[in-house]
Write a structure and sequence with these properties.
The protein has helices at about 25-30, 55-60, 100-110, 130-140, 200-210, 245-250, 285-295, 315-325; strands at about 1-5, 10-15, 40-45, 50-55, 70, 75-80, 115-120, 125-130, 145-150, 150-155, 175-180, 185-190, 230-235, 240-245, 260, 265-270, 300-305, 310-315, 325-330. A hairpin with a 2-residue loop joins β9 and β10. It is about 20% helix and about 30% strand. It has an 8-stranded antiparallel sheet with strand order 5-2-4-3-13-14-12-15. The protein has a 6-stranded mixed sheet with strand order 7-8-6-1-9-10, covered by helices on one side. By secondary structure, it is an alpha+beta fold. It starts with a strand and ends in a 6-residue tail after the last strand.
Length: about 325
């Protein structure tokens, strides 16, 4: 298999629920007017707490500084695993469980924080730019590693990367056990021809900007025990659109424009973390994905600014294998 370091330098940010109105214009531009921006990597996920944006430097320039905008300090690089050297994008995501043992676990052992973003087309493993040498030296025995530069894929070896040590100097720590929430929503992972975005503009704007979240006490923040949560993710990456939504949101969109896998499978969510999670803890994606991989259960994984979210096959056994006694570990970074 091949591991590609994509030609994007990414920032991870969050917008408060109350501050979304301040960013309406740049967000509409990034979602619907892609020919008027140089942004090639854009993802926006609404969770009960906030909106998480993952976007490249060109997209980040569209956002004005504001107290409603919080930005993680690091620059992140997206990694992409390819099964076939001739396929730049899979017909459907490999799923985090397919790369749990070959990518996620080795990076966790080297104390590398990751931020996961699964889409309909593929899975992106985001790593901090400063950790790239450790990433390459850790994975170069398992993969042919390429770095995309100016449209070309250049072969990279561990010895070619400055300071490419097999240890990053961090002390191993015992992973923290974090509680999980399993909302009752059923979720869909779907895609869309980007040329049809104008056809769903009104619905998408309504879902993203006006639908709101479950009722909550503004003073105390979102309730952590909601049976159903508001979660909606939209990604426009290198011309490919991916959407994650629950079945209530799906019914608002014209069925003939959205497409999914032939099985049309619905997914359950496992939401990891009782309190907002930081960006430096390692090993949670590995801990979450390993039992699923052992049982050959596919999963999507979406990290957000505050919590992690694993989407698993909608059967009860899948969530049981993952959560056990409802007190499961957390992720690696976000991831």
């Amino acid at each position: 298999m091949e591991l590609h370091i994509l030609d994007h330098r990414l920032r991870v940010t969050s917008i408060t629920k109350s501050g979304l109105a301040h960013f309406t214009h740049p967000l509409i531009k990034l979602i619907f007017l892609r020919r008027r921006t140089r942004c090639k990597f854009f993802s926006m996920t609404e969770s009960p707490e906030n909106y998480t944006l993952v976007l490249d430097e060109e997209g980040f320039k569209e956002l004005e500084s504001s107290e409603q905008l919080q930005t993680e300090s690091s620059v992140w690089l997206p990694l992409n695993v390819l099964n076939n050297a001739n396929d730049s994008v899979s017909s459907q995501a490999l799923g985090v469980t397919k790369i749990a043992k070959s990518v996620i676990a080795p990076l966790a052992r080297q104390h590398v924080s990751v931020f996961m973003l699964s889409t309909y087309q593929t899975d992106f493993i985001l790593v901090r730019e400063k950790d790239l040498s450790v990433v390459v030296s850790t994975l170069d025995e398992e993969f042919n590693i390429y770095r995309e530069v100016g449209g070309e894929s250049l072969l990279v070896r561990g010895c070619d990367v400055a300071n490419g040590l097999h240890e990053n100097g961090k002390e191993a720590v015992q992973p923290t056990l974090h509680p999980v929430l399993i909302p009752q929503n059923r979720f869909c992972v779907m895609s869309l021809d980007p040329d049809t975005l104008p056809s769903i503009a009104t619905t998408l704007i309504d879902v993203l900007f006006y639908s709101g979240s479950p009722k909550e006490d503004e003073a105390s923040g979102p309730r952590p025990d909601l049976d159903r949560i508001k979660f909606f993710s939209f990604s426009l990456i290198d011309g490919y659109v991916s959407l994650v939504m629950d079945t209530d949101a799906q019914r608002q969109f014209p069925a003939d424009l959205l497409f999914t896998s032939s099985s049309g499978e619905l997914w359950r969510m496992v939401r990891i973390g009782g309190q907002p999670l930081g960006f430096d803890e390692c090993g949670i994606v590995a801990q979450i994905s390993r039992p699923l991989a052992d049982c050959d259960i596919p999963a999507y994984y979406i990290s957000t600014f505050s919590f992690d979210h694993a989407l698993v096959s909608g059967c009860r056994d899948s969530t049981t294998n993952l959560t056990g006694d409802q007190s499961s570990p957390r992720r690696t970074s976000p991831a």
